[in-house]
Write a structure and sequence with these properties.
Elements (H helix, E strand, L loop, with lengths): L18 H19 L6 E4 L3 E2 L1 H7 L3 E5 L5 E3 L11 H11 L1 H10 L3 E2 H7 L4 E3 L4 H13 L3 H21 L1 H12 L2 H16 L2
Parallel strand pairs: 1-3, 2-4, 3-6
Antiparallel strand pairs: 4-5
Bound molecules: ligand LSGSKGXN.
The site of ligand LSGSKGXN has 27 residues, from helix 8 and helix 9.
Length: about 200
């Protein structure tokens, strides 16, 4: 039985809908990223299964990532495999985690990394046995919470603010770009083919 941390964004929200729907959907996705990446709280991802695309993004937004040590579980920004493109703020989040070259390889190929490779690439920080993911995350949380809060928060903001400001400045343009991209016939066709493939896999 496959286990999933997050299947990413709901593809059905990006297929066969109106432009108004796509715009509202994308604004909500932006909001999720701004809240999670910009949070001053400690955030630890307890990754207990596979985590493609938007799922990987959510994990990358956290301060620390612990993943179940199972090579069947994979994580990555696989957008190109769906015929779509990770937007600049997905890319920035990944660069801030694993660096420029690894991000370029990862994004162009739409790579999903099995857990051991994800650790090697720095996409996750630690692997633990599947039944220890929650307890390891709780232990990591205690360690992070032991740092004086104001100092940790200012440091986090210093590291992340440039990426956050970039999206805040370009929110409307980013929404317009998403709507015009996702509503193209060729992109709708790619998403349909991907969904059909998922169903055939069964
Ligand atoms: C300019 C910018 C433009 C665009 C930017 C857009 C950024 C997009 C970000 C995203 O997150 S796109 C979504 C990426 N997600 C994926 O690629 C995941 C695809 N799914 C899988 O790989 C697998 O389904 C799985 C998550 C590993 C689970 O596998 P399992 O074998 O357990 O289940 P199954 O494949 O049978 O799926 C069950 C059921 O769920 C449907 N499904 C799966 N993922 C999605 C999804 N992301 N959105 C909508 N629906 C999804 C799948 O089709 C099955 O449906 P069915 O039961 O009706 O057949």
């Amino acid at each position: 039985v496959s286990k999933i941390f997050s299947a990413g964004l709901d593809i059905t929200e990006m297929s066969g809908k109106s432009n108004e729907h796509y715009a509202a959907f994308w604004r909500a996705v932006q909001e999720m990223w701004l809240k999670l990446y910009g949070s001053n709280m400690v955030t630890i991802a307890a990754i207990n299964g596979s985590s493609p695309a938007g799922g990987c993004l959510m994990a990358l937004c956290c301060d620390y990532r612990i993943m179940a040590d199972n090579p069947k579980f994979a994580i990555g920004l696989n957008e190109t495999q769906l015929g779509i493109v990770a937007p600049f703020w997905f890319k920035d989040t990944m660069i801030n985690t694993i660096g420029n070259r690894a991000t370029e390889l990862s994004l162009q190929l739409g790579q999903m990394y099995p857990a051991p490779e994800a650790l090697k690439f720095g996409l996750v920080d630690k692997l633990v046995p599947e039944d220890k993911v929650q307890s390891a995350a709780a232990a990591a949380m205690s360690q992070w919470l032991s740092v004086p809060d104001h100092a940790r928060q200012l440091t986090k903001s210093m590291m992340r603010k440039p990426a956050i400001d970039r999206l805040v400045k370009q929110r409307e343009a980013d929404i317009n770009n998403f709507v015009s991209f996702i509503s193209k016939d060729s992109i709708q066709k790619s998403l349909q083919i991907y969904m059909d493939r998922l169903k055939q896999k069964k």
